[in-house]
C-alpha cells in the first residue's frame, strides 16, 4: 500500500475570508468528487490572499497514486484561472 500527499500553495484574488472560503470549499469538494482523494486546508487559514491545501491518496500501485495527484495539480491549474499555484510538493508518506 502506498500513501502519497500533495501540498498546494495557492495565491488567491480575495480580500475577505468569506470570499476565500467560497473558493477553497468549491475546489476541495470538486477535487474530492473527481479524484477520490482526501483533502483539507492545512495552513494559512487566517490570510484571505493565500491558501495551503493538502490532498492524500492511497493505492496498491505507486504509479497510480502519484499520477492521480499530478493530474489533480494539472486540473487545478487548467480549471481555476483565478487561483495561482505558487508551490506544490508531492511526497510519499
TrEMBL record:
Q: Which Gene3D superfamilies match?
A: TT1725-like (3.30.70.1120)
User: Which Pfam family, any one of them, does this sequence belong to?
Assistant: DUF503
Determine the domain of life of the protein's source.
Bacteria
Q: What is this protein called?
A: DUF503 domain-containing protein
Amino acid at each position: 500500500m502506498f500513501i502519497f500527499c500533495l501540498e498546494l500553495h495557492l495565491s488567491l484574488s480575495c480580500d475577505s475570508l468569506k470570499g476565500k472560503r467560497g473558493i477553497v470549499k468549491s475546489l476541495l469538494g470538486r477535487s474530492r468528487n473527481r479524484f477520490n482523494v482526501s483533502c483539507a486546508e492545512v495552513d494559512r487559514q487566517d490570510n484571505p490572499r493565500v491558501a495551503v491545501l493538502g490532498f492524500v491518496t492511497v493505492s496498491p500501485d505507486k504509479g497510480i497514486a502519484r499520477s492521480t495527484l499530478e493530474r489533480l495539480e494539472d486540473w487545478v491549474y487548467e480549471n481555476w484561472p483565478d487561483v495561482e499555484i505558487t508551490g506544490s510538493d508531492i511526497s510519499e508518506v
